Amino acid sequence: MNPERKIRVVVVDDSALIRELLGKIINEQSDMEVVAFAPDPVAARERIRETNPDVITLDVEMPKMDGLEFLRRLMSLRPTPVLMISSLTASGSETALRALELGAVDCIAKPQLDISRGMLDYAEKICEKIRMAADARVRLPARFIQRDSATAQPRIPAASAILPRDAIIVVGASTGGTEALREFLSALPADTPPVLVVQHMPENFTLSFARRLDQCCAMSVCEATDGQPVLPGHVYIAPGHSHLSLRKVASGFVTELSQSEPVNRHRPAVDVLFDSAANLLGKRAVGVILTGMGRDGAAGMLRMREAGAFNIGQDQASCVVYGMPRAAYEIGAVHEVASLDKVAERVLAYLAGKSTRDAG
User: What is the pLDDT of residues 53-109, one digit of tens each?
Assistant: First the structure.
C-alpha cells in the first residue's frame, strides 16, 4: 500500500450497531477509512463496484445471501482482501475454516456479550488485521473454481523414494497458512518423515483444522497432545492453546506441549518449535517457513541452520503475506526459496539426497 493513501474499507454486516462500531473504530485511525457500509451482500455488490475498496469486512449470517456464498462469488469475480468478523468465527470453527479456504485473509470473532464494549476492546486487533489484509495477495483457490471441496477427491501422492527414517520436518505458518499447509502436506507421500506444525490459529480451530487436513493427506494428521511418539507418516498440529516442541526419550522423540508465556506475541510460537529442533536434531531437521505476518520463526530457523538443519522458505509471489518467510530470508536462515507448489518437492528432493544446500 502507498503509505500516503488511506486504506479504503467496505463494511458488510446486517447489524446497524456493528456497522456503527466498526465505522468508529476504523475512521479513528489515521491510515484507514470506511468508504461504504452495506447491510447485506446484494447491497455490498453495488458499494464494492462504486468504491473499489482495499479491504472488505464481512459477516457470515446475513439476509438475501449467506456470507460464505458471497465470499466465494467475490473471490471468483474480483479477488479482494476480506476480513471475516462474525459471531460464527469463534464457536463455528468449521465456518471460519471454510471462509479461509474460500480466500478470506483472516477471521475475528464478535464478542458474545456486551457487543459495544467488546468491539471497542478489539479495536487494535481489528485495525492490525485490516492493515495486514490490505497488503495481502488474495485469490480463490483453484480447487474451488470448478468444483467444491466437499466433492473433490483428495490427491494421494505415490510412495516416495526411500527417505531417511531419522529426519524430522518442522513447519511454521500464519496468515494464509491454512491453505498453504493443505497444499504442502497433501503433496507428501505416506512414508514421509514426521512433520510438526505450528500455525497461528485460535485454540478452538486447530482440532477441526487437523481433521480437515487428515481427509486430504496421505500422511496421518492430528492435533498434537503431550507425550505422543513422533513417528514417520504422521503430522502433528500444535493446538491453539500451547507451544509445541520436541522432547528426547529413550525410544526417540515425543511431542511436548507447554502453556508458558507467549513468544513473539504468539502461543503456539514457531520459534519455540524451531528452537527445539535446533537443540535436539541438528542436521536431522528440515525447516519450512510459509506465508504469515510478522517475524515469528525467523530467529529459530537461523539457529536451526547454524545447528546443521536444511531450511526452505516460501517465495514472495505465492505468499498471502510475505512476512515470516521474508524475515527468515533476510537474516540468512533459509537455504532455498520455492513457490508453494514446489515446497514439498524440494523437501523430498533434499531428503532423498537429490538436492544440495545452496547458499541462502
Answer: 999 999 988 888 989 999 999 999 999 999 999 876 555 678 889 999 999 999 988
CA distance 78 to 139: 9
Separation of alpha carbons 334 and 133, rounded Å: 25
191 is annotated as an active-site residue: no
251 given a catalytic annotation:
no
Report the C-alpha gap between 275 and 293 in whole angstroms.
19
Q: Please identify which of the residues 59, 106, 271, 296 carries the catalytic annotation.
A: 296
* Catalytic member of 86, 87, 93, 174: 174
| Contact (Cβ atoms closer than 8 angstroms) between residue 348 and residue 188 | yes
The question of whether 243 is a catalytic residue gets the answer no
> Which are the contacts of 20, defined by CB distance < 8 A and separation ≥ 6?
none
pTM (predicted TM-score): 0.90
- Of 13, 106, 200, 271, the active-site residue reads 200
What does the buried/exposed string (b/e) look like for 218-251 if buried means 16 or more CB atoms within 10 Å of the residue's CB? bbebbbbeeebebebebbbbbbbebbbbbeeeee
Q: For residues 36 and 10, is the Cβ–Cβ distance under 8 A?
A: yes
